[in-house]
Design a protein that fits this description.
This protein is of the alpha+beta class and about 90 residues long. Helix content is about 30%, strand content about 15%. Helix 1 crosses helix 2. It binds zinc ion (ZN).
Length: about 90
């Protein structure tokens, strides 16, 4: 899976515009993290990777109606450790 267009913290797809990206301390756009995870150079979410997975499960299920909760969890537990935030 390509990681370039996903938030490197929560795995949210980012698309091609600047809009979903978070901001660095100097106000420039972060290239790695979404605005929900990263604001003014700080991570909004301070929990563990496992907690982030649990938060993301309902969103993944909403976008993938044929996926079970368990397979969504499994997918993210394998994928998130490859993202920059959780490496
Ligand atoms: Zn994010």
């Amino acid at each position: 899976m390509m990681n370039d267009n996903f938030c490197q913290c929560c795995g949210m797809p980012m698309g091609d515009t600047d809009e979903p990206y978070g901001t660095n301390l100097d106000g420039s756009k972060s290239r790695d993290y979404c605005k929900y995870c990263f604001d003014k150079g700080e991570f909004s979410f301070k929990g563990t990777m496992e907690e982030m997975v649990e938060i993301c499960i309902p969103h993944v299920l909403k976008n993938n109606s044929d996926m079970s909760e368990e397979s969504a969890r499994q997918m993210m537990l394998e994928w998130f450790p490859t993202l920059k935030r959780w490496k």
